[in-house]
Amino acid sequence: MQLNTLIIQMPLLSSAIQRADMFPYGSLSGDMILAEGDDETSRVLSLPRPVYFYDSLFSQLYVATNGIVSAQDLPMEKQYVDDGFPTDFPVVAPFLADIDTSGGRGQIYYRVTETPSVLNRVEVHRGFPDAKFTPTHVVVATWENVAAYEEPTRTSGPSNKFNTFQAVIGYDEVDSYVLFLYPEGGLNFFGTRPKESYNVEIELPARVGFSRGEVTYLIFSRTEGPHYSVTSDEQSVKNLYQVGNTGIPGVWLFHTGNRYSFDNIVPASVGGLLATPPTRGHGLSLDTTTPDYPEFEEYPDNTFDPDSQDEEDDYPLTGGDAEFQPAPASDHSEAPQPASPDAPSSPSEDVPHGSQPSNRQYAPPNPPEQCSQNAFCSDYATGYCCHCRPGFYGNGRHCLPEGAPQRVSGKVSGTVTVGSTPVDLNNIDLHAYIVVGDGRAYTAISEVPEPVGWALMPVAPIGELFGWLFALELPNSQAGFKITGAEFTRRAEVIFYPGNQRLSIIQTGRGLDDHNHLTVDTVLSGSVPFLPPGAEVTMDPFKETYQYYPSVATSTSVREYSVVSADRGSESFSFQLKQNITYRDCRHDSSTTALETLQITMERVFVMYVKEERILRYAITNKISPPTGPELVNPCYAGTHDCDTTAQCIPQEGQAFRCQCATGYRGDGRNCYDIDECAEGLSTCGAHAQCMNLPGSHRCQCQSGFEFGFDGNDTMCVFALECVEERGPAGVFHHLWLLHFFPGPSIFSDVDECSSSPCHVDARCINGLGSFQCQCQAGFYGDGFYCSQQEDEPERPKTHCEHYRDSVQTTSPEGYPITGAYVPQCDANGQYIPLQCHGSSGHCWCVDSNGQERVGTRTAPGTTPIDCDKPERVKTQCEHHRDSVQTTSPEGYPIVGAYVPQCDANGQYRSLQCHGSTGHCWCVDTRGQERAGTRTPPGTATKDCDRPERPKTHCEHHRDSVETTGPEGYPIVGAYVPQCDANGQYRSLQCHGSSGHCWCVDSRGQERAGTRTPPGTAPKDCETANEPERPKTQCEQHRDSVQTTSPEGYPLFGAFVPQCDPNGQYSAQQCHSSTGHCWCVDGRGEERAGTRTTAGIPPVNCLPSAAPPTVRPLPRPDVTPPTNADITLLYAQGQKIGALPLNGTRLDATRAKTLLTLHGSIVVGIAYDCRENRVYWTDLSARTINRASMAPGAEPEILINTNLVSPEGLAVDVKRRLIFWVDSNPDMIESANLDGSGRRTLFDTDLVNPRAIIVVSSSGTLFWTDWNREAPKIESSSVDGQNRRVVVSDGVGLPNALTFDSSSGQVCWADAGTKRLECVSPDGSGRRVIHSSLNYPFSMVYYRNHFYYTDWRRDGVIVVSKESSQFTDEYLPDQRSHLYGIAIATSQCLSGEISVLLFTF
């Protein structure tokens, strides 16, 4: 029985499909077979034609052991197989679990085919009746009798449970659809045990669904894209073969991609046997406890992290996280889509008693004001008002669940003039994500052109609107959304000083979409000051007062901001903001106390523009309160609570608070889960309505033939009243109302349409039975709906295309046609038709809006022309360069004299370039840079640019390595470019093109001392030595000995080059150009102790006579550390190590910075050696142990890179000069000397999942945790591996973090399973609980009666006081992603507290 017959006949089918009903597979069907193993990935499966997945095009696929098909090569399974859905790479997942085919336990087959018999089986029209889809290619992947991975130590023998399932991807040039097939008896296990994850689940159900993978979004560069989950728990996995969304048990069909526009996966929706449709919908990951926020990887200096938003949330800028996107297109559904659940049906004001809206007679009456489905309607003396039900907030017309994060999407348009250059913004995307629980608002605008992107960085008020709408509320205040709801207009004017540029901002709230996400459109117009590329903008925290009046809120403020750029240094500017926000209020409720004045406090403001991705980002933390009153320190008001992001923080007495899950969510407040009202029978939907679950809520959708009633109730559906409109000849319309009460004949009633004046003012209306007619009066002409006297309109000016077309001479002076000339074709509006053809030669090609030929689109006569409506590829640097040259005047006439680079068919620079006006020709390299010595004058033979050129010299390497143009091909000013002679050697006289300084150099390009001259003075004669050159000083020898270029001539970065004064002596102040550190030196160049400052800190005044301060060792362990000893927390965050200074015991977020950027790494364990000022870390990705000196110019050093599988926890014994680490895959604990030598294994038995490790140097004792799920424990031994024993094993869950309290002599741990922070003496006595409700601790250190731990729920550093057992501080890095290990670094070794280094994973 074939699948297409299955779908056609599915109402007759009552049991699951059989294996024989699956698509043919196996060697006889031409399948390739995936190698056996636990973590295998197929060779690349190249597709004959690319496939659209979401709205992206992919030309290759990979099939993996673990039940997935991916569009990119997969990472190691431990990086995804045990993690919750979605993945950070594109995935089609029919059954994502830890599968193992080793030892002949199953086979995995895959192929791509164009066989008609297979294509014909991909039938989608039953599930998508409006789809116009005929597949051209099909990918079939089959997992047959595959088994789950099982650890040999946990089972006595292999399991006899095997699964069989299939994924079928059918696609054409526009769409893609996916079938998941689960035959009867095909699923016998429904999940697998995590083996190398940090998930607290013991058994992880298989994940089924789709993930777009990481995309670019919001403040922190990279984040999860849209995703769609089918399963949420073990029961939903079992349902895969018991039900289906096609009406056939075991058959699931999805629309997965479209060439033009695609928000998220659309499941088929057919009645029949579908028992449990996936109502959690369209991208809401069902197996996450909290809506996550984006994981962002990179931006300059890696200091700042929206993105879909799980804790690594990641909706894209244009596609979007499923939770963040509009509802799927309604053309895939049989029933019409209802309006937004909270959108009013009419924009009219509140309707008082006795008034009726003005309506045309043939239209049904408009309802009174429609309240949200989460509100109730109150009848007052003068009219009606809507009020949100308990658990929701808003203005009654729009209500949202309290405590849940909110998302905003919209478009930005308008024209912004930067300096004197106007830049158009054409409906570019805006997305925002607001964590209501602590007032953080993240805003991102994508595809912002570079000049305006830099210039708009100070305009944080664009994103401040969302902070005001959803600010953290302090007592006696309310955020803006409770007043405005989702429909409002905000008008703001920004006046910049000192230039008096003015920018207008108009932001319009359009309501809530089908996912209860706010839609806001933004229009910008006016001018802004120019900011140099690469500039950084900082804004201090500030407070702003809002005045409230009926239907409007206003504010005025003055802001200051700083701009730091390479050319101008640091500059201060300001702007004035005036704004008003208008909205519809309900004045019938006289009991409501009107607001007068509130104050919003913006505690953190971060702005940046990412040039490479053209994304403008704002991040602001907002609190709203009355304008006066004492500072409140309750964690709910400070934003330091640990409630789930879908929970409310309810303040109680003092610093106490309570976490309560938001309406529509369930849990303990610290971990909340969405309630599926539809599945649990909690919906308010009436008869003939279908319940659709939403995050924290639900909506009702009427079945076909029904619609919501006119009483404003959007939960009850009534028979549809349908207006049938037929247009006849000469403006005759027929309007009939069909009232579908019965399946028999419809009831007809005539409507007098003329009473509503439907015709033009210069026409008359004639009513008839079931129709009316409009006729223009005498002297007027038209169809009756529009009549005119046919006056001639003035002719519009000619367009560029029409000028060009009319300038071509097509006839001779005698009037005969001239053949061979190309005449451009223009459309009715005078614009170039995208496809142009030469009437004589028959060639055709595509052009852009300027009439320029699009590279690679020309076709020969007799061949099929290119589809010019397909989006063209991204322009290359050559094409940017070429197209930026102005070759025509505003009137369309050619401009001569400009050099236009010539690009080949692939958009690359042609190796030979010639100037069309001067006749000069020359050779260029791949970057378009002229090759020295190749220029020829007009009339002479050109060089053969394809002959191999001589190897580049040191000077040429240096010159060509300087970046002189941006990615778009525009020049970059300010860079020094060395000058080489015809032989490639350094010219003896070098001059800086921007600064005007000149100097002499030697043959290596090194400046000769004493030869530099300022601009405007005569340069030195570098060819003649008028006086002998003095011998080099020690400083000059030191400076010139530093290797700054590689053997090939490329610059080397990161090395410290000393600075010498004009006499060759060491400059008193030395600075490292890479790290930004500065310090003072003596006459020998030796650093003077206590003078070093870090980047961003003003350097000390280095006076040659100043004696260096003396810091002596502390004599006693309990002596307070000296005040000049800097204490810094080092934390690992993915591809970087960050530094977070302490001010006493408080976290100093203002001085936080990135210490090391380690691209491609996953830094986990981290430790610090105070004697040699080195940081040590484990790299899970590279499987290495590394270190780096924190001295200027130091480079990372690999210590160990062999026989490591999963290096995690790490510790340094400062006293014995040893390192210790755990490897959680082979389950070992090892040690080595600090340089990596002397490696030895301490323990390799009786370990299951070793995690954290610390060393107490004073006693020579090791402590470590074992994450053995069957019997977790904490153990200890001596540093040489003797005296091993268990410290604690009772009441331990998932001991993740470990540290040592030197003041009490106790070992302390943070448990991700029990959520407790506990301490115990090394002998097992004196156990006590410090804190009983942590979030998700990962790593921990102890310092001065405080515990500092990294938290995976908050993605930050949390501080707990040992004395009060309370959370006292919190640091959330601007880059939002998981933090791993944490360590303490100090400028000198401290006694007692810091001598014990305890840095764990």
Automatic annotation (TrEMBL):
Protein name: Nidogen 2
Repeat listed as a keyword: yes
Keyword Transcription regulation attributed: no
One term of GO molecular function: calcium ion binding
Any one GO BP annotation for this protein: cell-matrix adhesion
Disulfide pattern: 837-844, 914-921, 991-998, 1071-1078
SUPFAM superfamilies from the UniProt entry: EGF/Laminin, GFP-like, Growth factor receptor domain, Thyroglobulin type-1 domain, YWTD domain
Ranges of residues in domain Thyroglobulin type-1: 798-868, 875-945, 952-1022, 1032-1102
Residue spans of biased composition, Basic and acidic residues class: 943-962, 1020-1041
Domain Nidogen G2 beta-barrel: 404-634
Gene responsible for this protein: NID2
